[in-house]
Amino acid sequence: MIESYVLGLASAEERTEFEKLCKQYPELKAARNEFEIALEKQLMSEAAAPVAGVKEQLMSKIRQDIPAVKSKLINMNTTNSNQRSGGLRYVAAASVILLLAAAYFAYSFYSKNKSLKDELAKSQEEQKSMDNKLKMVSDPNVAVVSLKGTAKAPKSSASVYWDSTSANVYLVAKNMPKLASDKQYQLWAIINGADGGLQPTSLGLFDVGEDGKIILKMENANKADAFAITIETKGNKGGPNLEQLQTMGATRL
Amino acid sequence: MPLDTKQWLDKSKTVLFYKKGETTICNPLFFCILYHLLIEKPTYNEPDLVSLLKQQDEQAFSYLYDNYSGALFNVINQIIPDKELVSDVLQEVFVNIWRKIDSYDADKGRLFTWMLNVARNAAIDKTRSRAYRDNMKNQTLPEDVSVFTNQTVKQNTDDYGLRKLVNKLKDDQKILVELSYFQGFTHEEIANSLNIPLGTVKTRIRSALTQLRILIK
């Protein structure tokens, strides 16, 4: 009986009878429901995709069906329950996008800003040191000492800018060949001793790049009769190796 | 910006975006979330769906179509082999569902059962229509049930749906289910045309359907 009722094969009298019985016996109704679910599962499991092309026509057909007054009423009803939740869904999605976009942009602006700041500080520092060097060159108190290449390095030449009031020493080197990695150049201030001997004072070790040019601020020198550059082992702490004298120049001729 | 905020941003950035060469690419996960929020339609439970349909809610009807049209198409197709005609009937069926939803009573069965019967009835009505019979000129009137049977059974696809299960029945049961369920003949019509007593037709159909119910489980 359940089957013919569910499958629509029961006659009108049989149907009424069965419905009555279902009301009386909940277990009969449960068995009917069980069969209905099994049938639905069976038929739904094999179902193809929704049939295309039919839907558009169908939707416009049923829209004509909705009487104007009724549809207005329904719209008012549904805004309270369903359509609002649809709207909320969009609002929620939109705010998620906005939040994520805002976070992303905030982060990227933050990191860009930070790197710009770093760069600015770096170039300001560079400019400051360049300014100091330039000031040296134009200052009348600054003596320019040309260091000429010795027989060992005839092409090497360098200038020392020596501020006799502040004792600042700047070195401008040209054509200094690049050294092996375990060697460094060293600038010396040389003072003629009272006994006629030479007293060298180190003004610092330095490296020269590939192009052989360099502008450096060296250690201060209060007194100097000459400046000289030698090649020393890296980090030299002793005196000058005068055999490796590259350039030299006297402060007073 | 405090450091913890920065770290948080850093983390969320690696979750949502990642770098591929020079370009930053959005994590697909992000799109999945968006898809769920925006595209995926809500699903309804049956009582809600029915009450919305009774209020003539278009969105609910659209869901109904998306969810059930495939299954109902198959049901109709097992009665009417011509696919183009099936689409026409399917459309009629859904218009009927829309118009008659007020007559659906959940106490009497599930929504799917009701729609299944609306679809079956519409399909059988179609095969009874004059235009349909004119189209199939070589077919005869209902009195010649046996000729009808042999043709339709062959024309229909029988590898899915109820017919697939019906084919597992014994031959004498199969014919009776074919005639009553798929072609909509009354027990009397079947008894007359097959020359079997009405009581026998009834008991055989009943046992065939019981068998079918076991197969469906």
Question: What share of the residues of chain A does DSSP label as strand, in percent?
Answer: 15-25%
User: Using DSSP, what is the number of strands of chain B?
Assistant: 2
Helix-strand pattern of chain B: HEEHHHHHHHHHHH
Mean pLDDT of chain A: 81
What's the arrangement of strands in the largest beta sheet of chain B? 1-2
What's the tally of helices of chain B?
Answer: 12
* Head-to-tail CA distance between termini of chain A: 131 Å
Q: What ranges of chain A have pLDDT less than 50 throughout 5 or more consecutive residues?
A: 71-84
Helix content of chain A: 40-55%
Instruction: For the record, give the distance between the C-alpha atoms at the N and C termini of chain B, rounded to a whole number.
Output: 64 Å
Strand order of the largest sheet of chain A: 5-4-7-8-1-2-3-6
Helix and strand string of chain A, N-terminal first?
A: HHHHHHEEEEEEEE
Question: Largest contact between protein chains?
Answer: A-B, 60 and 63 residues
Oligomer state equals: heterodimer
Q: State the major sheet of chain A.
A: 8 strands, antiparallel
Q: Name the overall outline of chain A.
A: rod-shaped
Give the beta-strand count of chain A. 8
Summing up helix and strand content along with how strands pair, one would put the structural category of chain A as alpha+beta
Individual helix count of chain A: 6
Q: What fraction, in percent, of the residue positions of chain B are helical?
A: over 70%
Give the helix/strand class of chain B. mainly alpha
